[in-house]
């Protein structure tokens, strides 16, 4: 019995060393803009075990939820923990919902990126290797945000983008109501264009890797293909993986048929584009 207890303690300590968690309010002194709701934006920080003096990359993670919720378990915390196990800081953004204020999630993402780059020394993060990841509607947030500029003195644009079954174009509505939840039921042509990530890509857009299932009926794989094509048209490095099945919303769920393959591909991409570029 004592041996079993000792083993449990050792395993617990080992797992604890793998990543640490810190919760931070994105707007500790109240957000400058309001969505009329009481929810607050927060960051959940998972850091890798520090093995040497080299700084680590980081990824700001935007879970999905159709802009009607934030699905942070398999599309947030589980992914952050996996990233930490690979030597990458995973930082989950629980962004505020728009509630008829389309700028709200993007304000939160911008402030989150400012926090990450401002506190980079505290977390041993390389400010030149800070990416963004997103799932479904969070993928829309990540893709659009990857193409935005800021008036801040600190660069907010991510250095790379990771997308899982993202909503990309608002020119046609998806089943989950992502477009109407962000822009309302009768969005203007200008808003539809401005929030269609494939229309925003330039040669300055960060490199991206995209994962999607071909039988995704909620957000068709055409969305991912459109973003990939826009990236290639602008000579931006990109990788697109379309799995034959899996539908929508698999995230870090281990029962997803291509769970191991997807993470193996992502690990390979991270090693090639992010983890080898030590400062």
From TrEMBL:
Keywords: Hydrolase. It comes from the Bacteria. SUPFAM superfamilies: alpha/beta-Hydrolases. InterPro entries: AB_hydrolase_fold (IPR029058), BD-FAE-like_dom (IPR049492), GDXG_lipolytic_enzyme (IPR050300). One of its GO terms (molecular function) is hydrolase activity. This is Acetyl esterase/lipase. The keyword Transport does not apply. The keyword Hydrolase applies. Residues 45-230 form the BD-FAE-like domain. It holds the Pfam family BD-FAE.
